[in-house]
Design goal:
about 180 residues, alpha+beta, OB fold (Dihydrolipoamide Acetyltransferase, E2P), 2 domains, two-stranded parallel sheet, 3 helices, about 20% helix, metalloprotease inhibitor
Length: about 180
């Protein structure tokens, strides 16, 4: 009988370790460059959060849309996100304005922790200006995030992003000019 109990205990322990690893890997991502987030998003808006409600497997934030930057002819009244940061859900403050970059699914806007959804007041003047004037024109360029040296770049349609602990390149846009992309 002890051999049976021991075998069951080992099996349960292995299953437990397997599940812990799944839970630990729940939401992993590095913050995107604002232009990359803009170009990858289906919809980009500035909005004020005015309400919050838990709805089947999601959090619904009621918003007042202030400005549409991408996805014309769409009025958004709510933003949906996963119920917790562990599931890549975004936590937002009521009565605060944000820039939201997200996806549309069945007429609903979804945002995640891996997207770019900063408070509006945290954006620099250059970033706010780029939302209407530069980011869209640079969507043909690739932004390659370099996390350690060396960072080789072998194409002319890309900009190397080496923003280690500073916000300097967050104020720049990768724009194509004369057949190649460069930070401007």
């Amino acid at each position: 009988m002890t051999r049976y109990v021991s075998s069951c205990f080992i099996t349960l322990f292995v299953l437990f370790l397997w599940r812990v690893e799944d839970i630990a890997d729940a939401c992993k991502c590095s913050p995107p460059h604002p232009q990359k987030a803009f170009c990858d998003a289906e919809i980009v808006i500035r909005a004020k959060v005015v309400g919050k409600k838990a709805v089947s497997n999601a959090i619904k934030y009621d918003i007042q849309q202030i400005k549409m930057f991408k996805c014309p002819d769409q009025v958004i009244h709510a933003i949906f996100t996963a119920p917790s940061p562990a599931a890549c859900g975004v936590t937002l403050d009521l009565n605060k304005e944000y820039l939201f970059t997200g996806k549309l699914e069945t007429g609903r806007m979804y945002v995640t922790l891996c997207g770019y959804n900063p408070p509006w007041e945290d954006l620099s003047a250059a970033q706010k200006n780029s939302l209407t004037h530069r980011y869209q024109s640079g969507c043909d360029c690739k932004i390659i995030h370099c996390t350690s040296l060396p960072c080789p770049i072998s194409t002319t349609d890309a900009c190397l992003w080496m923003d280690w602990g500073t916000n300097n390149s967050q104020n720049l846009a990768c724009i194509k000019s004369n057949g190649s992309c460069a930070w401007k």
